[in-house]
């Protein structure tokens, strides 16, 4: 019984961590590294609130889906 309760507790903690998502700056750095590896230059990545009007393409979500990372050329 104790093992079962321990397993349930660990699974609920793991679910909470996964729901929290990655910090925006960490994900932004990873996306920038992938874009740079493809040889792109002259772009910007901006962290905005989810659904906020932003000119550009959404390339990621972070902090539990509350924020988006937007890619802009130029």
How would you summarize the topology of this molecule?
Elements: H1 2-20, H2 24-37, E1 43-49, E2 57-62, E3 67-73
Antiparallel strand pairs: 1-3, 2-3
Low-confidence stretches: 4-10, 13-19
Indicate the percent of residues in helices: 40-55%
Coarse morphology: flat
Strand content: 25-35%
Number of domains: 1
Count of DSSP-assigned helices:
2
Number of strands: 3
Rg value: 17 Å
Mean pLDDT: 81
Distance between the termini: 60 Å
Taken in chain order, the helices and strands follow as: HHEEE
Strand order of the largest sheet: 1-3-2
Which structural class is indicated by helix and strand composition? Answer: alpha+beta
Major sheet details: 3 strands, antiparallel
Signal peptide: 1-19
Pfam family, one: DUF1161
Keywords: Signal
InterPro entries: DUF1161 (IPR010595)
Structure description:
45% of the residues lie in helices and 27% in strands. The chain is of the alpha+beta class. It has one domain (21-73). It has a 3-stranded antiparallel β-sheet, covered by helices on one side. A hairpin with a 4-residue loop joins strand 2 (57-62) and strand 3 (67-73). The longest helix is centred in the first third of the chain and has 19 residues, at 2-20. The chain is flat and about 30 Å long. The protein starts with a helix and ends with a strand. Residues 1-19 form the signal peptide. It holds the Pfam family DUF1161. It comes from Pseudomonas veronii.
């Amino acid at each position: 019984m104790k093992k079962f309760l321990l397993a349930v507790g660990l699974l609920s903690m793991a679910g909470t961590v996964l729901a929290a998502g990655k910090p925006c700056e960490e994900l932004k750095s990873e996306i920038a590294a992938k874009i740079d590896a493809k040889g792109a230059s002259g772009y910007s990545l901006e962290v905005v609130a989810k659904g906020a009007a932003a000119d550009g393409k959404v390339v990621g979500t972070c902090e539990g889906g509350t924020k988006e990372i937007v890619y802009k050329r130029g």
